[in-house]
Amino acid sequence: MYVDPSNYDKPEDAIVEFTAEIDASLLYLEMLIGKGEFGEVYKGSMTGALGKKHPVAVKTLKKDTTPKSERDFLLEASVMGQFDCPNVLKLKGVVTKYRPWMIVMEFMSNGSLDNFLKANDGRLSHLELISMAKGVGVGMKYLAEMNFVHRDLAARNVLIDGNLVCKVSDFGLSRELEEKESSRGEYATTGGKIPIRWTAPEATKYRKFSSASDVWSFGIFLWEIMSFAERPYWDWDNFKVMEEIDNGFRLPAPLNCPKGVHDLMMKCWKTERVERPSFTEINKILDGWIEKPTMEGDIDLSYALRSWLESIKMAEYTEYFVAAGYQRPRELHSIKEGDLKEWGITLVGHRNKIMKGIKNLQAKKNG
Ligand code: 7X1
Description:
Blueprint: H1 11-18, E1 27-35, E2 39-47, E3 53-61, H2 67-80, E4 91-95, E5 102-106, H3 113-119, H4 126-145, E6 158-160, E7 166-168, H5 172-175, E8 187-188, E9 194-195, H6 201-206, H7 211-226, H8 238-246, H9 259-268, H10 279-291, H11 303-311, H12 318-323, H13 337-343, H14 348-365
Antiparallel strand pairs: 1-2, 2-3, 3-5, 4-5, 6-7, 8-9
Bound molecules: ligand 7X1.
């Protein structure tokens, strides 16, 4: 079970209990990658026991800061130090014996998921998108089982590594509603800072935060993934969002989003929180799509392949590729003209067009 470190008389005691002090001489700060009101985030490296250097992210706290932000810094590290899950950002340790204080985390080379999605708009397959969502589902199930309510699940608070593994991060709001740093004005300030468009109605209205309200946020997060980080509810202001939700409006399926995935979002957005699925149930559904992608037409992983075939006016052959075990354009490089003939593509002109398309794909990939 997660222990709320703010219940400790002194945050220093929680730090000793939940984190490891790191010898600052093992750390090397290489590059500034983020800046906030109270400090900075660097890409760095940490020398391990065998002398090997490991990439790390290091958050520093400004020297001339307030006792309140010092306390928050220690509490954030004490929260993160309690988690041990492959889909929750991992704390390596802290530096609190010397100034500036530092929080040292595993390094996530692709940064925040919202920026990554925007930079890769249309370039990720449904399988990749659903696998990312599944990772976050696993992280959220772990947090719910630890009795920890996140309160701010959103693509901006998920980090992604070089293998496209997504990890839940940013435990600021869950701990202290008053101090959340604002990004793009997401946090309404009446009675605490709440990210209205990601938050369940019972939490925005009555502050009833729970794992079920985290499930609502997961639904919005899934919508962000499938829309490549479009802004939920577009340019509506927070009042309109709340009013429309109360009137029963729900976000429509993003462009090209399979119906089954939108159905899952809709389950997460049930007004009655007891009717929403648990993270265990959500993960089972996501797993079903990952393991048996073509089952019951729930989710069509060959979407990217069809789009590519459409682009070369050969969409009628999508099923030939799927039947031969191909689902994504990037898998096509080893195909020979003879294979196409064998699958039953009888027109030589069409075979040539497809082979030319595959060659162009390869050329694009090689830069
Ligand atoms: C701001 O970018 C990154 C932040 C990372 C991060 N942040 C983080 C902490 O670092 C130390 O203590 C922390 C506590 C909370 C959080 Cl959220 N943690 C881990 N890895 C991070 C990686 C970040 O960016 C990597 C580079 C992204 N890159 C992508 C391509 C375009 C340029 C930026």
